[in-house]
Amino acid sequence: MYYETIPSLNDAQKRQQQFRGWSRAKKKAIIKQNFHKLQLLSQCQNMSHSKYKDFDSAQSSSSPQQSSVAKSPSAPLRVGILGGGQLGRMLLQAAANYVVETFVLENDEHCPAAHLCHHFIKGDIKDFETVYNFGKNLDAVTIEIEAVNIEALEKLESEGLKVYPKPSAIKTIKNKIRQKEFYASNQIPSPEFIITENIEALKKNAGFLPAVHKIGEGGYDGKGVQVLRDESKIAKAFDAPSVLEKMVDIQKEIAVIVAMNNKKETAVYPATEMVFNPELNLLDYQISPAELSSTIVEEAKQISLQLVKSFDSPGLFAIEMFVDKNNKVLVNETAPRVHNSGHHTIEANYCSQYDMLWRIMLGYPLGNTEAILPSSIVNLLGEEGYSGPAKYNGLDEVLSMKNIFVHLYGKTQTKPGRKMGHVTIMSADRNDLIEKVNRIKECLKVVS
Ligand code: AIR
Predict the structure, then answer these.
(1) pTM score of the predicted model
(2) What local confidence, expressed as pLDDT, does residue 222 receive?
(3) Ligand 1 pocket, 417 CB below 6 A?
(4) pLDDT score of 129 more than 90
(5) Do both 240 and 312 map to the same domain?
(6) Which of 281, 309, 350, 351 is most deeply packed, by most CB within 10 A?
(7) For position 382, what pLDDT does the model report?
(8) Distance from the CA of 219 to the center of ligand 1, in angstroms?
(9) Tell me, what CATH number does 222's domain have?
(10) How far apart are CA 121 and CA 106, in angstroms?
């Protein structure tokens, strides 16, 4: 890393001669005698002075072009990510192994991904103009959350931008009603459902309970899902277009990640088994590979492949499924992006889900999805009763355990149930995995 301190304006002017070709942000810092900023820009070297420049100009425009020189034929691909949360952060960690120029669009400049990209652009991923301007000078774009402006992505795609996955797939998945209808029309087994436009419609269908009410648009991480065991719970339901899905007699919940490249070649990760926290309706921990009969594993794999082929889109998809008490496999929902159910692949599989998405976007061969060792993930959720600047209790104890990998997402603020990090545990022994899961859950707490 390069550090420098420039004590006076004279020296700085001499430096200006020496550093012809510097970014505008760096020159501006000299002229304004903003030595602190100059030093910061110098410390960050080439990677981040463009980032600071973007950040400066972000108030007026969200277009990467304004802040970057024209791309030469041999320049790295410019790839944008819509959203800057933990999934974007881990995607960027994998990007560091490739030659690629990365851009993040996100409203919160302190988000987990902000300091890991080459260019951070502050803006609303739901706004048409912002997304369109962000994408129009890039080579490819992907998402790390579904709540993005689809119309802008459709326009960008029609103008030749590569969007992973295709906007048509994101559009279908983003809306739970469309998603369920897609399953039905593509013969993908999924729990029985009806659509409810509002609470009144739901009341009229009370005979369908027990069921799960899922809001059409905007839900994630357990938000937008209500379990309605009987009529007394109807008050918790959504007064908006939603899916009412028949309760399944669940034996296990599993997830399969499928990657498809531009040549329509596919790679499938081993199924993971998920254990949910019923109160928060969030993943509690998971074990991979799932302990299932080879018949069920094969069925889950075939359903997942059929689904991704129906989307007919390159990209990475996570398919969450139920195995019911009769061993029937049913698709619960799909995510058109890297996913919580694949965090363990960073350490526990030869090619992580994040690496895989870069291979797809950069046109490299698909990677090996096999597990190196069985693994578990504990999600670190903000502790009940604490909201504010995050503190991590028990970190020393967890870090002194063998074969564990701690990931803290760098979210400054915690709140109950918020995903603040995760811990991956690797072990050939399943009992050892479960024992460590329980120890970690007992001692590691995110409070404020
Ligand atoms: N995310 C997206 N869909 C589901 C999940 N969990 C991730 C993305 C997103 C982040 O959660 O990485 O940016 C938002 O987390 P939070 O805690 O800020 O709401």
Answers:
(1) 0.85
(2) 79
(3) no
(4) yes
(5) no
(6) 351
(7) 97
(8) 11
(9) 3.30.1490.20
(10) 7
